[in-house]
Design a protein that fits this description.
single chain, 370 residues, alpha+beta, Rossmann fold, 28% strand
């Protein structure tokens, strides 16, 4: 792409190449901690972000019944999002994946959303979400016998601990309460990365921190909020106090953690959180098979966009198109989970709904779980 600058970053074992030519791609380069230093390994995912002519060489073969979603044997196009449209090439093949993104879309819904978020941030956040980048990353990980796991992960001298469960179970608030102790290092939040040899990796994905996470009192999150610009604080308070919303901010992990992040680490244990109506915290052993099923459901919930796209393509594809089913993706993911969990210590933690991160941390320490 003419005049574009090339940047590279690692997301787990994957090499990502980014072509930076505008403000949105510049923000993504920053969020993913990319540098101009070329990586000697083969590129797994290559991303271009430009205007609406970026799809000029794309020719669809089949049109789905879902608005402007269409595809051919190697690529598919998604045009029904308000903020952007994009094509993805070779997602199901063995070669590197290409993603071309048009961020010049204009419509009423996008304009209204910009009242609360700037145009560049709006587009960047959509690109770096489960609606696009992270489902592409997961399928690329599977090609390397690795997988996404919906979790928070931290590292200690004993190895890595994975905290997993469905959204709202307390993964983020507990993770950052644990990380107040400087003997622990951050590895990931929300999008953990594991391989079938039992390792986990640092992920530069920006941390999604909600008001409810900050209100539990973790010093790391509160200190970051104290550095907000005045206008951002006022907008945050307006959304939270006046509109009764749960505002969220995305923060690069190295900035949030003051560079206290880990690296590829052997997984020691996996803790699965469940909120319930009991009066005391309790725990139970769990087989690797059952844990895999639970974590699979919790993780695949986040990939509903991928599920929808695979259903649309498979329902309309000509005979001979090799498009996996979502069940294929689940099975490949589960194979990685089974191998990892079989090698790890495993517990389900049953947590009363109103339990605070301080109370949960005390329980985890008393029972030697961290």
């Amino acid at each position: 792409m003419k005049d574009a600058k090339e940047y590279y970053c690692k997301v787990g074992p994957l090499v990502i190449k980014l072509h930076s030519i505008n403000a949105v791609s510049t923000q993504i380069v920053k969020d993913l901690e990319a540098t101009k230093t070329p990586n000697k390994e083969q590129v797994d995912i290559e991303i271009f972000i430009n205007g609406n002519n970026i799809h000029s060489n794309y020719v669809p073969k089949i049109f789905s019944a879902k608005g402007s979603m269409n595809f051919n044997k190697q690529e598919f196009f998604v045009g029904y999002l308000n903020e952007i449209d994009y094509t993805v090439k070779n997602l199901f093949g063995t070669n590197g994946i290409g993603v071309l993104i048009n961020n010049d879309k204009t419509n009423i819904k996008k304009t209204l959303k910009r009242i609360y978020k700037g145009k560049n941030t709006l587009e960047k956040d959509l690109i770096l979400s489960y609606s696009l980048f992270w489902y592409v990353v997961h399928l690329s990980l599977l090609k390397k016998n690795c997988s996404f796991i919906h979790s928070g992960v931290f590292e200690s001298a004993k190895g890595a601990t994975i905290i997993t469960g469905t959204g709202g179970c307390g993964k983020t608030s507990t993770l950052f309460k644990i990380l107040e102790d400087e003997q622990y290092s951050y590895l990931s939040e929300d999008f953990g990365i594991i391989d079938n040899m039992g390792h986990t990796y640092y992920n530069p994905k920006p941390v999604s921190v909600y008001a409810t996470d900050m209100e539990f009192g973790q010093s790391i999150l509160k200190n970051h909020f104290s550095n907000f610009a005045l206008k951002d604080k006022l907008l945050w308070y307006f959304k939270r106090k006046m509109l009764r919303l749960n505002p969220m901010v995305k923060i690069p992990p190295k900035r949030l953690m003051n560079n206290r992040v880990g690296k590829k680490t052997k997984i020691k244990n996996v803790l699965y959180f469940v909120r319930n109506n009991d009066e005391v915290i309790s725990m139970s052993d769990v087989s690797s098979e059952e844990l895999s099923e639970r974590v699979l459901d919790a993780s695949m919930r986040e990939l509903k966009t991928l599920n929808e796209l695979l259903l649309l393509m498979r329902a309309n594809a000509p005979i001979g198109y090799k498009i996996p089913s979502f069940e294929d993706v689940r099975n490949e993911t589960k194979m990685v989970y089974n191998k990892v969990f079989h090698q790890s210590e495993r517990k389900i933690i049953f947590i009363p709904l109103k339990t605070s991160p301080d109370e949960l941390l005390k329980y985890l320490k008393e029972n030697g779980l961290i």
